[in-house]
């Protein structure tokens, strides 16, 4: 009955009419005038009726309809029962269930993955793990000792969207306590006790008390003392004081003194603690000390210890440990997106007995740093119809980011600065890590422009904020009245009517043949001009390279940069290193024959590690640089004394015969100062 002349008036009533929804009384179009939240109200029941505008009489009975609100992912999972408290016995086997945590998501579970929750552990590894589907927390490390560590704080994350990038996340804390089991025997704080008693002491008189310590607690720490052996077992008795857990030695028959000597046995070094867990950001500078590993010799001799890394546990050589101090440092750049965990083994060896080697596991967690900008997951290409109207949706875009912040990813979309005032298209951020591309005008024509390239700026919510620019390619297509694409290839309007397609192909083929002929002629002329006789100066077998200086000393400025040795940090942050141009020195350093007993400065270590990584990564750099250490001389050194202050007063008192044993390089020097191999001269 509505002929579009405005004679009919539409009215709206029911839930939210006039407050949430409004109706155009001329066209009957219903619009939302407030922001809708499905979690507050999932649907609205409305009634509409058409009236005669002049008389106000109904044109038909009142109609009832329901508006259902479609869900989007705008609620993060929440742990309603957190924080949690749990207890598990110490020394429990791997996989023992501790507690189950549950997170709820207010989004619609029947629509998409908005309410599909996946659990993960943010803090508490490697001691505990969590089932990604059920939220059950289990033990992940064997031999967890309550006496070493009793309390653990575990942080669990629940992330919706099935754990995919772009999902929202919530966290909770689980405080786990290890309950005691009887796994520690009583130990006496001293190995030898010396007591005395009068020979006239009556039976049952107290001789002395002994006390043992038990690291367990409660009933597991209760003790009972007994005499197990000795020549005074029949003369003395021992009872246990239940209140103070001490052993009271009393006279039974006779008295005696017992001396027990415990002999030392060579044992390997012992690490304290027995396990290391280190967290380090992925942007740490090469050479940074991330942990001090400490071990000691339990023997009485307390031998010196040297540290090293088991290379089978660190095949990528990401870490380095100082041989004397045990300082664990980074030797290569760390990348969490490549390796988020490193499990290495540090070895400790006794200097006097290399067969005694101890080891300790070191777990290194690489923390995430916002170092990856968000980007389009694929190439986006869309189309717009020539008859499109302003405000029409042509594409929905999303982004991915290789980083994984604790609170989930949040992306922000906008047009690039160079396209901020684009008259053709605009972008609307959906606030759910997606964005819509809309037309800003109508009346697109293929003849004017067939393809548009729209630059889109994508930024993340990290610190610092990183962004990238992606391009959306939009083609102008011919469409029917229903919006179906008919053709996206613009017709060749610029070709003359008399020039057919076949003629155009023939012309292009002729041009291609002419270009091939020209290139062939130029190539033949170039081969004719090239000489076939090799110039003598170019013969590499007859080249002579002359060096005017022998190297070494203060004049050898090509061997190394002395400024880099005085200030390694400036050399590392400055320009490219200076490479040696002369020959590789053949003199070997004497420092490799002498035990290294002094700790090297950590700044020099950092500089050497950075230079080592730089040389390993540069596949074209020749090995010209060398570092010779001349820091050991005098008594006890292989080099002997280099000082002339204690030399003999007369050359005749010194013998240089040892120069003949130094090889052909010192033959001339041996002839000048050493003993002659031939007969003595007659004059």
Automatic annotation (TrEMBL):
PROSITE patterns named in the record: CADHERIN_1, CADHERIN_2
InterPro entries xref list: Cadherin, Cadherin-like_dom, Cadherin-like_sf, Cadherin_CS, Cadherin_Y-type_LIR, Catenin-bd_sf
Top-level taxon: Eukaryota
Any one biological process term the GO annotation gives: adherens junction organization
Main location: membrane
GO terms assigned for molecular function: beta-catenin binding; cadherin binding; calcium ion binding
Record field: transmembrane: 503-522
Membrane topology recorded in Swiss-Prot or TrEMBL: Single-pass type I membrane protein
GO cellular component, one term: adherens junction
Subcellular location: Cell membrane
Function: Cadherins are calcium-dependent cell adhesion proteins. They preferentially interact with themselves in a homophilic manner in connecting cells; cadherins may thus contribute to the sorting of heterogeneous cell types.
PANTHER family: CADHERIN-20, CADHERIN-23
Official protein name in the record: Cadherin-20
Originating species: Pongo abelii
């Amino acid at each position: 009955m509505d002929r579009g002349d405005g004679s009919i008036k539409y009215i709206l009533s029911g839930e939210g009419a006039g407050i949430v929804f409004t109706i155009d009384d001329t066209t009957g179009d219903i619009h939302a005038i407030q922001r809708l939240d499905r979690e507050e109200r999932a649907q609205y029941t409305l009634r509409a009726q058409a009236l005669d505008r002049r008389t106000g009489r109904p044109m038909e009975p009142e109609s009832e309809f329901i508006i259902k609100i479609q869900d989007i992912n705008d609620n993060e999972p929440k742990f309603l029962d957190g924080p949690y408290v749990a207890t598990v016995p110490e020394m429990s086997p791997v996989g023992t269930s501790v507690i189950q945590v549950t997170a709820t998501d207010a989004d619609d579970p029947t629509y998409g993955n908005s309410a599909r929750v996946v659990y993960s552990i943010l803090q508490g590894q490697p001691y505990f793990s969590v089932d990604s589907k059920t939220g059950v927390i289990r033990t992940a490390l064997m031999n967890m000792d309550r006496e070493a560590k009793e309390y653990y704080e575990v942080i669990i994350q629940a992330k919706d969207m099935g754990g995919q990038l772009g999902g929202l996340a919530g966290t909770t804390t689980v405080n786990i306590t290890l309950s005691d089991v009887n796994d520690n025997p009583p130990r006496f704080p001293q190995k030898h006790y010396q007591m005395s008693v009068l020979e006239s002491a009556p039976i049952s008189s107290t001789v002395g008390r002994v006390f043992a310590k038990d690291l367990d607690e409660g009933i597991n720490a209760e003790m009972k003392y007994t005499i197990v052996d000795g020549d005074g077992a029949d003369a003395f008795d021992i009872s246990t004081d239940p209140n103070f857990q001490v052993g009271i030695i009393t006279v039974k028959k006779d008295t005696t003194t017992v001396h027990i000597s415990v002999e030392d046995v060579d044992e390997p070094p012992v690490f304290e603690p027995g396990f290391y867990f280190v967290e380090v950001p992925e942007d740490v500078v090469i050479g940074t000390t991330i942990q001090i590993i400490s071990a000691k010799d339990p023997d009485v001799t307390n031998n010196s210890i040297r540290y090293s890394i088991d290379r089978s546990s660190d095949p990528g050589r990401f870490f380095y440990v100082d041989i004397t101090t045990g300082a664990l440092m980074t030797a290569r750049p760390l990348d969490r997106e490549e390796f988020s965990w490193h499990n290495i083994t540090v070895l400790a060896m006794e200097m006097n007995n290399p067969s005694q080697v101890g080891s300790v596991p070191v777990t290194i967690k690489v923390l995430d740093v916002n170092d990856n900008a968000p980007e389009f997951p694929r190439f986006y290409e869309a189309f717009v119809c020539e008859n499109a109207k302003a405000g029409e949706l042509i594409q929905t875009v999303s982004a991915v980011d290789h980083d994984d912040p604790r609170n989930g990813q949040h992306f922000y979309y906008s047009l690039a600065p160079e396209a901020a005032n684009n008259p053709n298209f605009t972008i609307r951020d959906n606030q759910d890590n997606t964005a819509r591309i809309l037309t800003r005008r109508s009346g697109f024509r293929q003849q004017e422009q067939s393809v548009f390239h729209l630059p889109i700026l994508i930024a993340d919510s990290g610190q610092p904020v990183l962004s990238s620019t992606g391009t959306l390619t939009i083609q102008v297509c011919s469409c029917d009245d229903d919006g179906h694409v008919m053709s996206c290839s613009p017709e060749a309007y610029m070709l003359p009517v008399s020039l057919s397609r076949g003629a155009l192909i023939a012309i292009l083929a002729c041009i291609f043949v002419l270009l091939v002929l020209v290139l062939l002629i130029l190539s033949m002329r170039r081969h004719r001009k090239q000489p076939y006789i090799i110039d003598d100066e170019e013969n590499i077998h007859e080249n002579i390279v002359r060096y005017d200086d022998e190297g070494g000393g203060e004049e050898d400025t090509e061997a190394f940069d002395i400024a880099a040795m005085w200030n390694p940090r400036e050399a590392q942050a400055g320009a490219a290193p200076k490479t040696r141009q002369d020959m590789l020195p053949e003199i070997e350093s004497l420092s490799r024959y002498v035990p290294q007993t002094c700790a090297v400065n950590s700044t020099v270590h950092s500089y050497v590690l950075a230079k080592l990584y730089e040389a390993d990564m540069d596949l074209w750099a020749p090995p010209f640089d060398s570092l010779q250490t001349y820091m050991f001389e005098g008594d006890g050194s292989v080099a002997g004394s280099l000082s002339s202050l204690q030399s003999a007063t007369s050359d005749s008192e010194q013998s240089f015969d040892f120069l003949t044993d130094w090889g052909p390089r010192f033959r001339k020097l041996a002839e000048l100062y050493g003993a002659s191999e031939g007969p003595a001269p007659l004059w």
